[in-house]
Amino acid sequence: MEFSIGLLLLVFALSFFLSGQIFQARGYTLNEGRDIHPGMFLVSCAVVLMLLVLWEEFLFPVKVKAEGKSVIYRNHRNKLKKQLLIYLIIPVIFVFLYFEYEVNLLRFIIWSAVCVVSPVAGKLISGINNYNDFLKFTNDTIEYKNNEKTGIFKLSELQQIILVRDQRNVLHKIQLLTTDNNTVVIDIDEMELEAFYASIDKFVIAHYKDLVK
Fold it and tell me: What pTM was estimated for this model as a whole?
């Protein structure tokens, strides 16, 4: 945690130092003599907020939800709502700066585009698209929802569970082979569940060891 806070402070300091280029200023004042330090402070805040949205584990540590005898892995809904609220502060900052300060338009557009677009492309779109997705394990069933794909399978209806890993040996799909020889692939790599891969891997092996191949 101390390292994380230190990294954020370092990013803040670097952003503060570099953000002066956004403003049409001589030294640290505008032509009319206005101090640009408050504006630089706001830009640095916007950069840090962008990182907090992208680096979601910092504010939103991973938690597995247990309900009775079942375990549910899902894209945290409360986390996404809070991320959106944090994100909305970023465009507000840049709109304020545009109307309150004399800016270098090209540099202003570059800085604002990076801060506004990166969280959307990096986290928010995938989070919204997978808002209702989940993977649920019980002692008797495996249930999932991945966008339009959904299903619930009794363990008694399965003859095999195959854990599919990528080139890094990280779990990214679960393949179910039913007793009537149908194959169902649960694409957990499409479900905004990256933080749970190791946990899911261990849980399936431990609880369904007779079926895992």
Answer: 0.73
**Cα→Cα distances 165→46, 55, 168, 174, 198, Å:** 37, 24, 7, 9, 11
- The whole-angstrom separation of Cα 39 and Cα 69 is 53
134-207 CATH: 2.30.29.30
Greater model confidence, 3 or 176: 176
pLDDT in the model for residue 129: 75
Q: What angle do CA 164, 63, 5 make, to 5 degrees?
A: 110
Q: How far apart are CA 65 and CA 73, in angstroms?
A: 7
pLDDT tens column, 79-132: 788 889 999 999 999 999 999 888 889 999 999 999 999 998 877 877 777 778
Structure-block tokens of residue 146: 């991945």
Instruction: Indicate where the chain has its CATH 2.30.29.30 domain(s).
Output: 134-207
